[in-house]
Amino acid sequence: MEVLVHWFTDNLSQHISREMVIFIISMIPILELRGGLLAASLLKVSAAKAIPICIIGNIIPIPFILLFIRQIFKLMKKTKIFRGLIERLEKRAMGKSDQIKRYEFLGLLLFVGVPLPGTGAWTGSLIASLLEVDIKKSSVAIFCGLIMATVIMYVVSYGIVGNLLH
């Protein structure tokens, strides 16, 4: 992830503001809020400024995923070009769905909130949608998970660990 964050930071910061770089990185699957906060610390943007930008950037795609991803996947699976990709995405997401199936709200919150590879708001939203978890329940769990991930990543990016990385 660090390599991707560095690449985006180096390439985008030449053309757009540091805040916009952070916002865009926070919207990208895989990088999300974690990558946005890491980029913010690399770009020397204060945590007070970076945290709201990262949260907003990461949260914007979530309602669209929760509401429309099943229909989009259904449409895309009808085409020969995208069928294999969509089936792999579904299989990968569902392979990580055990804790969400078992604990629903708490499982989704922890899945989004604990910053491990392959977890986060995008994948959590995809799994919640595929499992047809209630949209209100999943939205609250994902938002709470984002807050949890924000706290953890703040400590990593700006705290003691962040100082060791610079």
Automatic annotation (TrEMBL):
Domain of life assignment: Bacteria
Tagged with keyword Transmembrane helix: yes
Signal peptide stretch: none
Record keywords: Membrane, Transmembrane, Transmembrane helix
InterPro entries: Sm_multidrug_ex
Regions that span the bilayer: 21-43, 49-69, 105-128, 140-161
PANTHER family from the UniProt entry: TRANSPORT PROTEIN-RELATED
Name used for this protein in its record: Small multi-drug export protein
Organism: Blautia intestinalis
